[in-house]
Amino acid sequence: MRTFCLIFTLLLIVAPLVAQEATPAASQPNIVLIYTDDFGYADVGCYGAVGVETPHIDQLAKDGLRFTDAHSPSATCTPSRYAMLTGQYAWRRKGTGIARGDAAAIIKPGRTTLPSLLRQAGYTTGVVGKWHLGLGDGQLDWNGPIKPGPLEIGFDYCFLIPATGDRVPCVYVENHHVVDLDPNDPIKVQFGKPLDDQPSGKTHRETLKMDWSNGHNMTIVNGISRIGWMSGGESARWVDEDMADRITEKAVQFIKDQQPKEEPFFLFFSTHDIHVPRVPHARFVGKSTMGPRGDTIAETDWCVGQLLETLESCGMTDNTMVIFTSDNGPVLDDGYQDDAVEKQGDHNPSGPFRGNKYSNFEAGTRVPMIIKWPGRIQPGTESDALMCQIDFPATFAALGKNASQIDIPAEAIPDSLAMVPALLGQTKQGREYLVEHGRALALRHNQWKYIEPSKGASYNPKTNIELGNDPGGLLYNLATDPGEKTNLVKSRPEVVKTMQAKLEAIRQAERTRPASPGEKGESK
Ligand code: NG6
Ligand code: CA
Fold this sequence. Notes:
Elements: H1 2-22, E1 30-36, H2 55-63, E2 65-67, E3 70-71, H3 77-86, H4 114-120, E4 124-130, E5 157-161, E6 173-174, E7 177-178, E8 188-190, E9 220-221, E10 224-225, E11 229-231, H5 243-258, E12 265-270, H6 292-313, E13 320-326, E14 369-372, E15 381-383, E16 387-388, H7 392-397, H8 420-423, E17 433-437, E18 441-445, E19 448-451, E20 459-460, E21 465-466, E22 474-477, H9 493-508
Parallel strand pairs: 1-12, 1-13, 2-15, 3-16, 4-5, 4-12
Antiparallel strand pairs: 2-14, 5-6, 6-7, 8-11, 9-10, 13-14, 17-18, 18-19, 19-22, 20-21
Helix pairs in contact: 5-6
Bound molecules: 2-acetamido-2-deoxy-6-O-sulfo-beta-D-galactopyranose and calcium ion.
């Protein structure tokens, strides 16, 4: 009897794994992608944060899989988001750098995107939070319909912070319209020269509730001066302290609205935290020892908790894959005097890695990534597979029983690789190659990291960031030197040569996604 019980128990444990191998596409999960802003590798507890607690995010790791070598596609926001949604390395495409607040839509209608692929598999798709990929087709009138935008490239619903918290316009956009706009008080937005003689962060610096340190000295909204000029739209202007609550409420509602439906959903929840200006709600002030930067980490953890609680109360926990990650590495002083430097204490947001946001060094793109999918991903596991968010389109499209309904044109998502076994922790074999993108390009392969020669500044004194630009190039063995301390360019010329050749081949290629069986056309 005992033997029978043992065999039976073993079967229970092993069967789902075997089934996973045989039919990797049993169910069609909901997908909640929590995309944080400027969270560094070690900005959450389960990656080593000190001075702030992140119990909900840590619980995700206890219930799921924690990656230690996962990357945002770039070391800043716009290119990372562009690449994650289109599956194309941003450096292949001009105009994908940090977008202005009045930038036109960077991803044009008709493009195959992460949400447009998921829609083919029957998903309802929504994006709530920071967008920063441009809106409209140039010369946008913020008082009229705002398009093209997310709804024209595959999302069914959007509630947006159009660019960043530190850029005008400081209003929310829901689907095609600015929220709470009074037509008698139209909005004007301008970058470059001032709009009128309104007070600015420069002229009325003493009135600000958070002072700027670099740039960010133009239009004042909610006592904080921003990048760019904006007039009108008083009733529509956001209150920074309420931002996390507003977007969480919208995300929670989106999830609840899906409950009666048969179809799965995809929610791209894109936090403003912990980007500047860091202005937590009063209930999070003092939750960390690190001032606003740490307090907004605590605020983000609360948002994560709210989403998980909603899934649970809707009975959706079991069939939802939740992913927590970040759009680029960490920065302390990013233009406001918010005590991030002064109150850093023992907390090291880059963890064991060198560099920060903006940097070619590892911490520019190596970010936290945690995935939970009950029944499909083993709880409390860890993987050092080389992963990148650019693979989300091909990977999410390959998940679940409806994957065969998705048609991926030859030219679509050109650098996105289907990484289902690695994403689910069935293998620790990740990408063979990854191009990291700071200012210069860097190639990862096996233990090697090669940063191509770059003439840019090696250090930015304003942000206190080592950018990792070197005219001679840089080569590191990450297996023995994860902190990128010993440059091997001179001692290992043969490695430099192969890495440079491979990087060049990837740069010249139009795509790195292998052709799918039966694919015609330009597949290489
Ligand atoms: C920089 C801003 C920085 C931040 C960044 C974009 C200055 C001096 N610095 O230009 O504050 O807004 O752009 O960050 O203006 S990102 O995470 O959205 O890429
Ligand atoms: Ca960012």
